[in-house]
Design goal:
single chain, mainly beta, Tachylectin-2, Chain A, 2 domains, five-stranded antiparallel β-sheet, four-stranded antiparallel β-sheet, 2 helices, 19 strands, disordered N terminus
C-alpha cells in the first residue's frame, strides 16, 4: 500500500501547469534485467528461475547471441553469460537471434530459437548451457508454412508429449518426436486466432489449455497480449471474451511478447514480457519486466497490472 501511495504522489507531482506529466517514468516498476532485452522466456528449474531473452538494441534486430539469466527470487538476476553464439555455434545462420524458449525432458534441456527466420534447436545438460546444435540445420526451415518461422515455444503435457508452437501471421503447432529434436513437418496444424500476430505461449492449469499470443507489431505502442483456451493442446482454441490481458498504460508502452511461469508447488503465476525502454525506448530498444498474473474462480486470466512490482518469491520445490 505504501508503494502504491508513493506512486500516486509521484504522478501528481509530475503534472505540470498545463495538466501534462513532466516525468511519467517514475511510476513504472524498474525492468528486471539491466540494458535492453526482449521476448523473455521465463522458466523454473530446481530452486532457480531462469530468463532466456532476445538481445535487443539494433535496428532490424540483428543480434547474434543468446544469454541466460538466473534468479533465486524473481527480483535479483545473474547474467550466466552467452549460451549460444550463432556465428560460432551454427553453420546455417549468423544473425537475427530472436525469441528463444526452453523445455526439459529426458534429463536434458532443449533450447528452441529463431535464427535468420528459421527455427533451430540446441541441447545442453544444464539450464545455463552451453548449448550445442545436435542436427546441424534448422528444425523448421524458413518457407515451411505461410508466414515467418519465428517465435518457437514448447509445451510438454502431463503424458510427456511435447508440442512446438511457432509462427508470425499464423499460429502453427506440430508434435515433436520423443527425441525433442525432430518432427513430422507434414503434420503441422496452422490456424489464425482473431488478432493473432506472433509470440505464442501455451500452459496448462486445472485441466485447461491456455494459448496466449501478442497482437499488433512489436514496434507499435499498442502491442499487447491476448489468450484463448481449449480442452486439447492442439485446440480448437476459443478466444476469451476479456482481452487483452496485458497491455501498456501511461509511461509503459508496447507491453507484449511474454511468457509465464508457475511457482513450483503453488498456484502462483508470473508473466514476463518486454516494453519499450523507459525512457526513450522503441521497438528496437525494449526492456524485460515481470508482473504477477492471476485468475478468477472460473479460470479466466485477470488483467495484468503493469504497475505492480514483482515481489520476492522463492522457487523451492
Amino acid at each position: 500500500m505504501k508503494q502504491r501511495f508513493l506512486a500516486i504522489v509521484l504522478v501528481l507531482v509530475g503534472f505540470g501547469s498545463k495538466g501534462q506529466t513532466t516525468v511519467d517514468s517514475v511510476v513504472a516498476p524498474a525492468a528486471v534485467l539491466p540494458g535492453v532485452f526482449a521476448d523473455p522466456h521465463i522458466a523454473a528449474f530446481g530452486k532457480k528461475f531462469y530468463i532466456y531473452p532476445t538481445t535487443d538494441g539494433t535496428v532490424g534486430w540483428k543480434g547474434t547471441t543468446f544469454s541466460c539469466w538466473s534468479s533465486n527470487d524473481l527480483r535479483k538476476w545473474k547474467n550466466e553469460g552467452v549460451i549460444l553464439d550463432l556465428p560460432r555455434d551454427l553453420t546455417w545462420a549468423k544473425e537475427r537471434a530472436w525469441a528463444p524458449a526452453i523445455a526439459k525432458k529426458n534429463g536434458k534441456y532443449y533450447f528452441y530459437y529463431s535464427a535468420d527466420v528459421n527455427i533451430g534447436v540446441a541441447v545442453a545438460d544444464r539450464p545455463e548451457g552451453p548449448f550445442k546444435d545436435p542436427i546441424g540445420k534448422p528444425l523448421i526451415p524458413k518457407g515451411t508454412v505461410k508466414g515467418q518461422m519465428i517465435d518457437p515455444m514448447v509445451f510438454i503435457d502431463d503424458d510427456g508429449s511435447a508440442y512446438l508452437y511457432f509462427g508470425q501471421g499464423n499460429c502453427n503447432i506440430v508434435k515433436l518426436n520423443d527425441d525433442m529434436i525432430s518432427c513430422d513437418l507434414s503434420k503441422i496444424i496452422s490456424f489464425k486466432p482473431q488478432g493473432y500476430n506472433e509470440g505464442a505461449f501455451v500452459f496448462k492449469r486445472q485441466g485447461k489449455y491456455y494459448l496466449m499470443w501478442s497482437e499488433y507489431d512489436t514496434r507499435d505502442p499498442r502491442y499487447s497480449v491476448a489468450y484463448a483456451t481449449a480442452d486439447s493442446p492442439t485446440g480448437p482454441f476459443v478466444k476469451a471474451e476479456t482481452n487483452p490481458v496485458l497491455k501498456g498504460s501511461g509511461a509503459i508502452k508496447g507491453a507484449g511478447h511474454h511468457s509465464v511461469v508457475q511457482v513450483p508447488g503453488t498456484d502462483n503465476w508470473f508473466i514476463a514480457y518486454h516494453r519499450f525502454k523507459i525512457p526513450d525506448g522503441n521497438g528496437y530498444n525494449r526492456e524485460t519486466c515481470i508482473s504477477p498474473m492471476r485468475f478468477d474462480n472460473k479460470g479466466n486470466i485477470l488483467p495484468v497490472d503493469v504497475f505492480e512490482p514483482v515481489p520476492a518469491v522463492k522457487a523451492k520445490r
